Amino acid sequence: MSITLNRIKVLSQLGQEMSLMAAQLEDQSYLTEETLGPLITQTTAKNGWFTADQIAYSLRHWGSLLQDKPLRDWVGSIEFAESTSTTVLIIAAGNIPLVGFHDILVTYLSGHQCVIKPASNDPILTPYFVRRLTELDATSSERLHITQEIVGAFDAVIATGSDNSARYFDHYFGSKPNLIRRNRYSCAVLTGAETKEELALLGDDIFRYFGLGCRSVSKLWVPEGYDFSDFFNGIYSWADIINHHKYANNYDYNKAVYMMSNIPLWDNGFLLLKSDDRTSASPIGTLNYQTYTSMDQVNRALWDQKDQLQCIVGPKEIANSVGFGQTQRPLLHEYADGIDPINFVISLY
């Protein structure tokens, strides 16, 4: 069996484990499971945003991707190296569960040495699955390493963070081959003709992972005179999100700031809607909106913002749009910032 096919087999085994873990989390059988129980308890204790249901959603999605056919379709006829002396440093983000796993997956496939620096708010979950990968493939145990400090020699860098951290990365890693990702945000374009089912799916695009991901919709484009009552009715299934203490604290804080500043708001008790034409992610518990008069106007504006946008949800008239409920389920070839990391790691051979 080729190196590539052998690694696909290993990743498929890991995907099966992830699917099983997701099922255990969803029916709460993890509460009595000796391995999974402590993993989830420790993870949620370190990061209150990483709730059991959010972790389950991430694991369910990864389990659907790490299967033989999706993996084969993704890598095609690429034959990766058995091993190389090149060391890739991965500086992972920690805003949503396993957000940096795609970079680890790519580097594992490449055969390069890999040093992984998890985010400070993700010291448990990502390292666990790196360990599982090395246990399933003993030949990778010498290639995949977790570190809490950026020390030692490395030849290339894959780093994900904010615009501020990207400037730091550029300064310190600019002399080495690098793939550095920055802030992006996602938006949705509504016409007023959406069904209740479509708006319910949009709720998943907005609230999944508490809106902390770059694929989380944080801005709406709506036609002038749009009636927000249909939108609020459509997303009502997410009303319980206000019972999460960290989300509620952010919602209450932002509401107080806006009210003291006399900023007009739409408020349904768990989401604030604010008129704002800025091209950046909105604060937690807040969704910005901007009105339009024609689809041409929206397309022109979104084209101008293409370097700041991760996903666009909307009708087919909107260029590069995806369907409602799809933003948090990217396929293996739907890359963050539109940059192909496979091409990057292959360029290091």
Describe the structure in your own words.
- With 349 residues, the protein is an alpha/beta fold.
- It folds into two domains: 3-182, 3-Layer(aba) Sandwich (Aldehyde Dehydrogenase, Chain A, domain 1); 185-313, Aldehyde Dehydrogenase, Chain A, domain 2 (3-Layer(aba) Sandwich), CATH 3.40.309.
- Helix content is 40%, strand content 15%.
- The protein has twelve helices and eleven strands.
- It has helices at residues 3-26, 36-46, 52-65, 68-75, 101-110, 125-136, 163-173, 196-207, 228-234, 245-260, 295-304, 341-346, and strands at residues 87-91, 113-117, 144-146, 156-160, 178-181, 185-189, 217-223, 266-267, 272-275, 286-292, 309-313.
- The strands form two sheets. A six-stranded mixed β-sheet has the order 8-9-10-7-6-11.
- Helix 1 crosses helix 6 (125-136) and helix 8 crosses helix 9.
- The chain is globular, with a radius of gyration of 21 Å.
- The two termini are 22 Å apart.
Secondary structure: elements and pairs:
Elements: H1 3-26, H2 36-46, H3 52-65, H4 68-75, E1 87-91, H5 101-110, E2 113-117, H6 125-136, E3 144-146, E4 156-160, H7 163-173, E5 178-181, E6 185-189, H8 196-207, E7 217-223, H9 228-234, H10 245-260, E8 266-267, E9 272-275, E10 286-292, H11 295-304, E11 309-313, H12 341-346
Parallel strand pairs: 1-2, 1-4, 2-3, 4-5, 6-7, 6-11, 7-10, 9-10
Antiparallel strand pairs: 8-9
